[in-house]
Please model this.
Amino acid sequence: MTRDAESKPWRISREHIVTAYRAGLDAVISLVEYQQDLIGSLRAQIESLEARVAELERRQHTDSHNSSKPPASDGMGRKVVQSRKRTGRKPGGQKGHEGTTLRVTENPDHIVVHAVGNCCGCGKHLGQEALVGYERRQEVDLPPLRAEVTEHRGEVKLCGDCGQENRGKFPEGLRSPVQYGPRIRGTLIYLKDYALVPFERAAELMQDLFGVRLSAGTLANTEQECSGKLEGTVGRIKEQIRGSEVANLDETGLRIEGKLSWLHSAGTASATYYFPHAKRGTEAMEAMGILPGYQGVAVHDFWSSYLSYRCVHALCNAHLLRELTFIWEEWKQKWAQEMAEALRGWKKLVDRAKARGLAALSARLLEEIEQQYERILLRGLQANPLAAQTGPPRRGRRKKSKARNLLERLRDHREKVLRFVHDFRVPFDNNRAERDLRMMKVQQKISGTFRSWQGAVAFCRIRSYIATTRKMGLNVIEALTSVFLGQPLLDRLLA
Model:
């Protein structure tokens, strides 16, 4: 083989051709087959490299506005994309907006009178002059904060007849000679599991604010105590979601003992339930115990494990909008822009109908929506035909473009995409579940990992209680204090 042939193996030298020709037909056929095999191998390499380049270019042009990437991954140098259309109004509060300015209190806790001394005009002393009135100014502040110590004394008496010693009963939960009360413990849990203040900093804050000296170990023990007391309450939260008409579901990565695990959430307008598990898919959902046997509408993104359950499903259209935005911005496929605009328009139709007190769209309007959806879908499928297979058949799934995959999802799951226009109970997107998970991701950024599964379970149980408390409009500290009093506020509302 020549030097040129060594550097370019797909090229056959003249000498090889002549040698094969002289050797006969079989040698010529073998030489041609050898070259065809080389060309096939090179074509496969080229296709692989082209796909890799396309994927790298796609990643370079994706951020939170056109993919499922979180905004934190965009970086400081990201170009800000205006996701909402300009209204023409000035920024800030609009006319008629009810502000939150401090209001004058008619019954202040303290009144301080500042007397007038001498007249600022002639200098006369005004002590004997009649009072005309007062100019009022109020200052809202906190009183000096200091923990109070309450001593409980149980009487001890001997019966005069039988000599039996009798002791007065202490309040339930008061077991140690000295211990922290329910409000301090509730505040500790508020700082750790709601405000997401780390253990040591929470201990420092309690000392600085209230003069209470405690260790990080005390806070950890208090968290476990709170978790144990909430087991029944959080179980009732879970059952309420299992019986709901619509539930929003999502999952996100969670580090426990330094390993990647998963946090699963299920929520409604009035309740939230969190569940940690080592797996992301069906095994975790079975252990969570909400989707098995669920009879309502499950709202989620396009994760196959959700679709394996036989309840009614609705897909998150916010995810679809981001994918459509990418296909329009990067590949200029008109159908993607049309579908995105149509989805937004149908959402406005539904919102206006709800505002007018309607329970559903008219049959005529629903038919028009279905027809428009079909027209856009057909245009997209025509613009993205399946690529013809070349070379020998390959094992596994047939490779498809991002646009084609999205179109097939829109085609095969149209009833799940359009569930929100047919059923007003179903939201347009899965933002409720994403909001439920947002602060859990903040916790991971602060703490990095849970040191034990016991700690992760305790945190998720307490956050389930706190998130549900907030959705019901209750005071979080009061709700946490009630846990240590043995009477969680939510128990009455979930009964």
Notes: Residues 1-6 have pLDDT under 50 and may be disordered.
